[in-house]
Design a protein that fits this description.
Number of strands of chain C: 2
CATH superfamily of one domain in chain C: MetI-like
CATH topology of one domain in chain C: MetI-like fold
Number of domains of chain A: 2
CATH architecture of the largest domain in chain A: 3-Layer(aba) Sandwich
Helix content of chain A: 40-55%
Strand order of the largest sheet of chain C: 1-2
Distance between the termini of chain C: 7 Å
Order of helices and strands of chain C: HHHEEHHHHHHHHHHHH
Helix content of chain C: over 70%
Shape of chain C: flat
Structural class of chain C: mainly alpha
Structural class of chain A: alpha/beta
Largest interface: B-C, 116 and 124 residues
Largest sheet of chain A: 5 strands, mixed
Radius of gyration of chain A: 24 Å
Shape of chain A: globular
Strand content of chain A: 5-15%
Radius of gyration of chain C: 25 Å
Largest sheet of chain C: 2 strands, antiparallel
Oligomer: heterotrimer
Chains: A alpha/beta (about 425), B mainly alpha (about 270), C mainly alpha (about 300)
Number of strands of chain A: 13
Number of helices of chain C: 15
CATH class of one domain in chain C: Mainly Alpha
């Protein structure tokens, strides 16, 4: 009892010494050469699901086989920590060789932070560069910082068994969708639609196609159109086409709901195609129903690739990006493993892409995408839209109030960011 | 002790146990489901359990537990080793000048805790990078200590304060010096508090994941908290994996707690000291 | 008292080191020094950076680059944001729920659970074990339990009541999230109060009981006054927690539906790491800090009244 104090202090001192002895372990990031002359490239992603990791592993294996002496080290970072980690490292000269980041939201911050290398010299010398659409090459005034080899898109899954039961054909317009949902809701055995309405950019991504098919994007929002779309959304909530919980569901929740078999329709993405075979009902896919004259239009999502500014092996990193991601072979490996759509134009008609019936709507969607806003405040704009949509679905705000709020929020964010959009 | 009847004790224990066991049961049940079962019916109670997912997470979970044990262990030792004397110093009010200092110090401790952890990451990163501690365990330990030390000092102080002044006067009269008083009076009498706060600090360091994932990126050394955070991303959440990891990695915590809780739950007889 | 010079602990040679150590252990600041060094080296710099950022233009493009000083602009922008005021109110509700549950249920729970029977010991262990689960896990569990087709609604269905939108109804979401956070922090509160109860002077309590005092009388006149320092610190810590933690909001509702559950700390986190407006987010953090200091004033004043020795 009396010796307790001394023991505590002694233990603390021992702890300090042992902790100090732990110093000297290798610090994270950067490539290095080990004893046998092999080079290692460090790749950061936030991949978690089997499909994306399997594809990455397959692509890495192919690259290592064609480039003996190079090893790819895949480091998984939790989704929320990837961007902060890059930003923190930007100030201290610490980072990976290659990174796959959530470009549609994080690009302005990452590009300006100095964490990513300007790829312009590499891109200009890249023979395949013209195969890639502008939307796959992410630039700022200071250069090219991210390129996309694949994109993830939204479309509509449907439960073929339920549709057959009610004799419904897969809808192509919002009007048709609403009539179909009315039939399902009336019968009461199933819920019509599962979608994500969470108060974040994720929810906004899923809601925006309602406006995009009218030619309205973030850069040209007008209150009447937005209010109209919100009224549609509110109608779905009031008629029980979508559960109120939609207001807090993200993409994963929406998929979980659809996969349970209780939903007739589900807005979701191509990353779930791999799971369709395991469902205990027959699922089909069709493009998101169109809400206007522009047809079905979506924003292209997915991760983009960049080289870390502090990489010791920039040339090798670019070689890896070229052969291990952007090439035809790598893009097809990726597509066949995960269903992620290659951005290369010369693969649009590839047999692999044509072969799978379920993926066709996504391939078609990839051909009719809208451009993300180029404002540095793009994240704030998308966030505001997500919050507004979530408020409408839950009844926290009326469509009119939500519309006026979000239009003024987005407009001021554009102005704050220097006016470009 | 305070005159609460045994029956109240049993009743309250029952209610609280249920309220806290139900979520625990959900965790265990979910960890025994396969991917298909999660997809099909995440809330179902009737299902055929499988240990597949446990087998999957066993080896990565094992490494994570070791890292977490070292991380939380060293953090707790350092926090207690530095925090107990600090709490003692801030509770013995030697002079008016010192009293003013105590008030200021407490204010500083409060303010330091209000720096949001995610925002402290970036400045801390540059500090640790300067000392070449990024990517090392001591780096994360220091970051966790900076996070938990103010909290520990604030929490330890009342325990030290509750030692009656008469005991100190008696010790003084016996001719002891400051260090002896600290060692033979303060430490034993606040042992309850030290054990309590130490356990709490250990548990908090175990669960901390922002510093752990930012300052340690090597896959093999990821602690439990980071492993759990990793199960959620933009595209999906692996619920059964997360719950299986939660079960697996709580077991050592349970063991550590069982060791420490004897002192917490059974207590010491204060009377003997008098 | 510490500063009283007393006979040294041993005779013999007085090396300078020994002299220094003796000096350190005689004065109160000697015991404070290690903490000051560690916190000074690690915790003060982030605080300074936070203050600097709150007064500078730190947006998506300028996170790493030079920060332009813009005075109070960030604060003005924060105060002008309707979400800010909503989040202050939300945080108020959140704090209140936490305080009521953690202090009232906490005290009653600790009192009842300290009777030392096997059942109460077991309950205590279960509670602390569940408390040790990371918010990601416990928050996710409650998200499933409170879902539309979750266990809680199924229970309601069994007794013939209708399902409730616990986490997506604008009226109920904040209360639900607050209660879950309170549920998660209750074991901590009980543990701390329990530690205090263990140190109660038995003779005083015995004497009062012989005089015929019951539980409530004992609590009011003897136990609670003795526990005051512990309870005051606990209150301050709970307020601190309410103004800085956003784990449960993040895991369960991501601030929604709409912005109903966006508490101040979640708003600050979102502003910083989802929209990359670090300047405004720092201003929000500084405002939260100020609010907590103001709320902690009674505690600080109480410090001055504490008796020495």
């Amino acid at each position: 009892m009396m010796r307790h104090g001394r023991r505590v202090v002694g233990a603390a001192a021992a702890g300090l010494l042992m902790a100090a002895a732990g110093v000297g372990a290798a610090s994270a990031g950067g490539s290095h050469v080990d004893g046998e002359g092999a080079e290692t490239l460090t790749v950061w992603t936030y991949y978690v699901t089997g499909g994306q990791i399997d594809a990455l592993d397959a692509q890495n294996e192919m690259f290592e086989q064609t480039h003996p002496g190079v090893k790819i080290d895949h480091v998984q970072i939790p989704f929320d920590q990837l961007a902060p980690r890059l930003l923190a490292g930007a100030a201290t000269g610490d980072g990976p060789d290659v990174v796959l980041d959530n470009v549609v939201v994080d690009f302005p911050a990452l590009a300006a932070s100095g964490a990513l290398l300007d790829l312009t010299p590499y891109w200009d010398a890249y023979p395949d560069a013209e195969q890639f659409p502008d939307s796959a090459v992410w630039r700022t005034d200071d250069g090219i910082f991210n390129v996309m080899s694949y994109t993830n898109l939204l479309a509509m899954y449907y439960n073929a068994d339920i549709l057959d039961e009610y004799g419904i054909a897969p809808p192509t317009t919002i009007e048709e969708l609403e009539s179909a949902m009315a039939i399902v809701a009336e019968a009461g055995d199933y819920t019509p639609l599962s979608m994500s309405g969470v108060a974040t950019p994720e929810g906004a991504w899923m809601f925006m196609p309602l406006l995009l098919s009218q030619g309205v994007g973030y850069c040209n929002l007008d209150e009447p159109s937005v209010e109209g779309a919100f009224t549609t959304l509110q109608g779905w909530a009031d008629n029980d086409y979508i559960p109120t919980e939609t207001a807090t569901w993200d993409q994963a929740d929406a998929w979980l709901a659809f996969a349970s078999g209780d939903y007739a329709f589900g807005f979701n993405g191509n990353w779930n195609l791999g799971e369709v075979a395991g469902l205990d009902f027959t699922a089909g896919t069709v493009q998101l129903p169109s809400n206007g004259s522009e047809g079905s239009v979506v924003f292209p999502g997915g991760e983009a690739i960049g080289i870390g500014s502090f990489s010791d092996n920039q040339d090798l990193a670019w070689e890896y990006i070229q052969s291990g991601w952007m090439s035809q072979e790598a893009s097809l490996i990726n597509f066949n493993t995960t269903g992620q759509i290659p951005t290369r134009a010369d693969l649009a008609d590839a047999p692999d892409l044509q072969a799978n019936e379920l993926v066709q709507p996504f391939v078609a969607a990839a051909g009719s995408t809208a451009n993300w806003p180029a404002s540095p405040n793009t994240a704030a704009m998308q966030n505001a839209m997500g919050q507004a949509g979530s408020a409408v679905i839950s009844g926290a705000l009326s469509p009119a109030d939500a519309a006026s709020q979000v239009v003024s929020d987005v407009t001021s964010e554009i102005a704050d960011g220097g006016g470009s959009c | 002790m305070i005159g609460v009847g045994r029956r109240w004790g049993h009743a309250a224990a029952g209610v609280l146990s249920v309220v806290y066991l139900v979520p625990l049961a959900w965790i265990v049940i979910t960890s025994l489901k396969s991917d298909d079962q999660i997809r099909g019916a995440p809330n179902a109670l009737a299902f055929t359990p499988t240990l597949d997912i446990f087998r999957e997470v066993l080896d990565v979970g094992g490494g994570a537990i070791v890292t977490s044990l070292r991380l939380a262990g060293f953090t707790t030792l350092l926090v207690i080793g530095v925090g107990v004397p600090a709490a003692y110093a801030l509770s013995r009010l030697a002079s008016p000048g010192w009293r003013r200092l105590v008030t200021i110090a407490m204010g500083v401790l409060l303010v330091l805790q209000m720096v949001p952890q995610p925002m402290a990451v970036i400045p801390l990163f540059s500090i640790l990078a300067r000392w070449k501690l990024v990517g090392t365990l001591p780096g994360v330990v220091l970051a966790d200590v900076s996070l938990l030390l103010p909290f520990a000092i604030l929490l330890l102080r009342p325990f030290v304060l509750s030692i009656p002044g008469a005991i100190f006067e008696a010790a003084e009269l016996d001719g002891t010096n400051g260090w002896q008083r600290f060692r033979y009076v303060v430490l034993p009498l606040s042992a309850n508090g030290i054990a309590t706060v130490g356990s709490i600090v250990f548990i908090l360091a175990w669960g901390e994941f922002i510093y752990a994932t930012t300052f340690l990126t090597e896959q093999t050394r990821r602690p439990v908290s980071g492993l759990l955070a990793q199960q959620i991303n933009l595209y999906s959440v692996s619920w059964n994996r997360m719950m299986a990891l939660a079960v697996l990695t709580s077991l050592p915590l349970l063991a550590v707690f069982l060791l420490a809780q004897k002192r917490l739950v059974q207590g010491l007889s204060v009377g003997a000291v008098k | 008292m510490l500063t009283t010079a007393t006979a040294s602990s041993g005779s013999g040679s007085r090396s300078p080191v020994r002299l220094a150590v003796t000096r350190f252990t005689q004065q109160p600041w000697g015991y404070l020094l290690p903490a000051v060094i560690i916190l000074g080296a690690l915790a003060v710099f982030p605080l300074i950076q936070l203050a600097r950022m709150s007064l500078s233009e730190v947006g998506p493009r300028t996170i790493v680059g030079p920060w332009e000083f813009i005075g109070w602009s960030n604060f003005r922008k924060a105060f002008g944001d309707r979400i800010f005021w909503q989040s202050v109110r939300a945080t108020g509700t959140f704090t209140l729920v936490l305080l009521v549950v953690d202090l009232v249920v906490g005290y009653l729970g600790a009192a009842v659970l300290s009777s030392g029977t096997w059942s109460t010991n077991l309950a205590l262990r279960i509670m602390v074990f569940v408390w040790a689960l990371p918010p990601i896990v416990s928050g996710s569990v409650w998200r499933f339990l409170l879902a539309g087709n979750g266990a809680i609604n199924s229970l309601l269905g069994l007794v013939g009541m209708e399902s409730v939108d616990w986490l997506s109804s604008p009226d109920r979401a904040l209360l639900s999230v607050s209660l879950v956070a309170a549920w998660a922090s209750l074991p901590f509160s009980i543990l701390v109060i329990h530690g205090g109860l263990l140190s109660l002077p038995n003779d005083v309590i015995e004497a009062a009981r012989i005089d015929g005092a019951g539980f409530w009388g004992l609590s009011r006149h003897i136990v609670l006054p003795i526990l005051r320092p512990t309870l005051t610190v606990l209150t301050v810590l709970i307020i601190l927690y309410a103004f800085r933690s956003f784990d449960f909001v993040y895991v369960m509702t991501e601030g929604g539906p709409g912005t109903v559950t966006t508490t101040l700390p979640y708003f600050a986190y979102n502003t910083a790491f989802k929209t990359y407006q670090f300047g405004v987010a720092s201003a929000l953090a500084m405002v939260s800090m100020l609010v907590v200091i103001v709320l902690a004033v009674p505690y600080m004043l109480g410090l001055r009244k504490e008796h020495a020795g």
